[in-house]
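=== RUN LOG ===
request id: a7f3
mode: sequence -> structure
chains: 1
length: 532
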Amino acid sequence: MTCNWFLSLAGAVTLVKMLLIPAYHSTDFEVHRNWLAITHSLPLSKWYNEATSEWTLDYPPFFAYFERFLSIFAGWFDPNMLVIQKEAYDSPATVFFQRLSVIVADILFMYGVKQLCEQVVKYNKPLEVKDFASHPSFILAVLLVGNFGLLLVDHIHFQYNGFLFGMQLLSIVNIWQGNDPWGAFWFATLLNFKHIYLYVAPAYFIYLLRCYCFRQSYKDASVMWTSLSISRLFLLGVIVVTIFGVSFGPFVFQMEQVLSRLFPFKRGLCHAYWAPNFWALYNFIDKAAAIAAIKAGLLTRDSIAVGTMTGGLVQEFQHTVLPSIGPAVTFVLSVLSILPCLYHLWRYPNGPLGFLRCLTLCALGSFMFGWHVHEKAILMVTIPLSILAILNKEEANVFLLLSSTGHFSLFPLIYTTAETPIKVGLMLLYTIFAFYTLGTYHRSKSLFPLPLLSCIESLYILGLIPVYINCNIVYSLLGLAEKLPFLPLMITSVYCSIGVIYSWLKLYWIVLNSGKPSAEKKRITYLGDKSK
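=== RESULT ===
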């Protein structure tokens, strides 16, 4: 990869991030401000017990250490941000420091993208390209570095996802290079920064066991059980146990308290508004059935919980018509949703490419059926799917569908008027770039249907435009804001959930029909074994 153009790209995106410093920020800003205060002002033994503010520390220890490190510099900008208090604090100096800390941390993400692009181009020799903008490394770099969802969530809404995805990309790069122990190291480290990545841990477990610990396979791709390397299995165990020991070791005598913070199952099935997944449709059907039951005289409005017909599902909630869903049900469905791709990875590993596909499906399955899923979790799918979009035309189709619907579903996070042109403009730029470059690279000549999409898929994506106009303009003109305050969010979530579910099914079809070995070879050595 030519370093000059990548530095120019990284610099341009960083400039955009700097321009967003004065933008609106959500309550997540105060969450991290409070964590700075907790880790700076209290001894380590009290970090997970402090509850002055409602925004208690609920990330794994490595992230707490990261906040403690940031607090060293925070005092240079405004010492008052390091005071534990119940009220929110967001002085101009505090805003500048926290925004800047996200931008600086993104250096790890930039590095991971650069390493990944170089590796993917080596693996996937590009088709004949007519210009620089059609080169796969450039397309992939822009899709990742300029990811609309990351810009929206990290640099307006406010979170630290970028550098975490940097760790994941470095993990993927090392696996792609055949450095599986380093891949395990980076992923175990990532888990101890943010435990939501447990969603994709099964893909790592199956791949490392199958392609690193078992070194050979028969011609039908079945595992050669006698090829198990105890030393390799032991090495992986040492890596994982050591990292978790360093992370959780200081909290060993308060583990129950720490785990109660990390896994708060008292929260409701859905987040503040419905993420576009299976449960969005489930909730919508329940509401529609409740309305029908009222009109049919089977139910009365008094018998329905306040907010059921006009509000979202926040905290614990009982459905009106359909069976209410508990954490155990979502866990079982999430496991069932990833079992087919895990079995396929075990049966037909297909090297790091098969691993990446399984990782993406694990993230998407958990997003589809998980408990209290945040809409922001769609980034765990679109980031690895960006890589697959370069490697395969069919997966480029899924990426365009899923990134368009998933990113659109993030719009309600930024509801302020001043930021509306910014979020709409950034998404349009990103989406147009993705469609044009991927369509050109994969040689899709049609303009309508949209590049790489069928006619029905194109109509669905273009349908996002009237959905936005209806929810943001028509809805207000009709004066429904007070009567049905949750309606625009419900329409957005339900419409986007259709695209997400369709993309999940289509990606599964692609993956389960790929990666089967050639019958010509007696044994298969996978790409992950190249250096061993």
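=== NOTES ===
The first helix runs from residue 3 to 19.
The two ends are 26 Å apart (CA to CA).
=== END ===
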